[in-house]
Amino acid sequence: MRCIADASSRPATGPLVSEPPAVTLRGFRPTDLTQIIPIVEEALWERYDPSLYSSLSLEWPEGFLVAADVRDLPVGFLLGVSQVTREGRVLMFAVERDHRAQGVGSALMEEFLTRCRARGFQRATLEVRVSNATAIRFYARYGYSVVDLLRGYYSDGENGYQMARSL
Q1: pTM to 2 decimal places
Q2: CATH H-level superfamily of 24-126
């Protein structure tokens, strides 16, 4: 029997989506916060000080990806940071409910991994709630595997998994 947190035997090397999503990927802008904050609260069940997004975007601007709809409004984002040498970390990643299962998350993850490789990173990591089986399966499709249990990691006390993959 296979654990839902096990990586697939072959990490994703190319697109997993047959058609591109109806969004464009671009960098973060401070004006995006009015759309990003509600996405975070609904999808991640967390609240962060708005200044956190701007300060983190300065560390690695190319790591903060926004998926924007035809009106150029954010419908998803991936906030990547590099806090460990040669490692990219997905700090926050969420897609608006109405845009899930349409390739938006895949486009964001693929671009993040491409940017990590371009910087010469050797590993990518992230954290996920243990109860979020959908996200765990999504990450496993991209070659991430559970490497640690993080007890009481989230603000509500829920445990998290740390997941990682080689680049």
Answers
A1: 0.84
A2: Gcn5-related N-acetyltransferase (GNAT) (3.40.630.30)
